[in-house]
Design a protein that fits this description.
This protein has 6 helices and 6 strands; from the N terminus they run βαβαβαβαβαβα. It is 32% helix and 14% strand. Strand 4, helix 4 and strand 5 (151-155) form a beta-alpha-beta unit.
Length: 195
Amino acid sequence: MEQSKHRAVFIDRDGTLNVEKDYVYKIEDFEFIHGAKEAVRLLNEHHIKAIVISNQSGIARGYYTPNDVHLLHDYIQRELRKEKAQIDAFFYCPHHPDGTIDEFRKVCDCRKPSPGMILQAEQKLNIDLQSSYVIGDHLSDIKLQEKVPVKTILVRTGHGNKALEELQKEKIKPERIEENLLDAVNYIIRTTNPF
């Protein structure tokens, strides 16, 4: 018997889940965007996988290490669990073609807008991409809709307003534009029926 596939919301991290600051990797610099914890809890309550996908080029640039990212993700999970919420999986890309750390200096298939992180999640968590969404504040988040069959929502937090200008120039349309992660999740829940 084939296991049924799951809907997911792929959430960009910096600027969407948490306040955008240059290269967030220290716990003391991390701050959830207002409503973000509630957004994750709502996804959990509606049996929609909450998956973080994040470009972390600071690793390739030598600003911090993969271990720093894991420690921060552990902290995020602990804070969410206090609110009866949790991220189902974290995926991040440590690469950048201009990196200073040889191991991570490369063109890869996981750095957004390449779909590698989403494809990993699809396999690992049995995700139905056609019923899933990407929520983010960058052009690279929205461009994922060109690579995989997901719907996209641009949020105005972080770099969202700048990304909106870029999207208009490139004539790329997300399904929706919302103020923040919570508004985006409420839209998804309002307009879709869980399996």
